[in-house]
Amino acid sequence: MNHIYTQTLSTPRLTLRRAEMKDAEKLFENWGRHDDTTRYVLWDTHKDVFDTRVFLRTWVNSYVSSDVYRWIIVITETDEPVGTISVGSMNKLMGICDVGYSIGPSFWGKGYATEALGAVVEFLFTKVRCNKITASYMAENENSGNVMRKCGMTQEKLLRNRNLSTSTRKIKTDVFVYSLKREEYFSSEDSGTL
Question: In the chain, where does DSSP find H-type helix?
Fold first, then answer.
């Protein structure tokens, strides 16, 4: 893989960029404070803007590493941060990147997650040159599965009755794992199906 740090990515409506401390208030309002945002992810709702600042500080400090890929999702027209997308884990030997994303509930149903994931998939295959991208979702969050399918991913496996937890919640659920291989991406791109 070719590690090149987190780069700014642009889509027709979005800018995916590095986190900045100045994002704290808006990101807390639009994303971090909502139980709906965290219902299907493995982190807890931010109690106040301090929690969002702690989160942002971790991300800002991580950008010194060339193999960290973490973006704030911003609506370009309004400069409004509405969520996050990142490579949560990576198998460098196999060239596999696992991507996770979340959008604040006021911004659901507008195609932002699909647009952001599509941009990250393109970046990871064309610039970072990873071999495979994976993503997963809890069975109750079928909308996330729709996002993955729209970006060309297919179901790889079903992890049944998984015990998941955050610091405040225990979750038992099925987890669907989706993936897209490098050759599939470039094959479908050549055929115009993505």
Answer: 24-27, 35-38, 49-62, 112-126, 142-150, 182-191
Angle formed at CA 14 by CA 8 and CA 17, multiple of 5 degrees: 25
Name which of 1, 169, 10, 20 is nearest 87 in CA terms. Answer: 1
Report the number of distinct structural domains present in the chain: 1
Closest listed residue to residue 140, CA positions, set 181, 187, 106, 176: 176
pLDDT digits (tens, 9 = 90+) for 47-105: 999 999 999 999 999 999 999 999 999 999 999 999 999 999 999 999 999 999 999 99
Domain that holds residue 125: 9-191
83 bridge partner residues: 73, 103
> For position 47, which CATH number holds?
3.40.630.30
Task: Render pLDDT for 11-46 as a digit per residue (tens, 0 to 9).
Answer: 999 999 999 999 999 999 999 999 888 888 888 889
The DSSP H or E segment spanning 102 is strand 96-103
Query: Are 89 and 98 in contact, with CB atoms under 8 Å apart?
Result: yes
CA 119 to chain centre: 11
Residue 4 belongs to a domain: no
Pseudo-torsion of CA 32, 38, 4, 130, nearest 10°?
-170
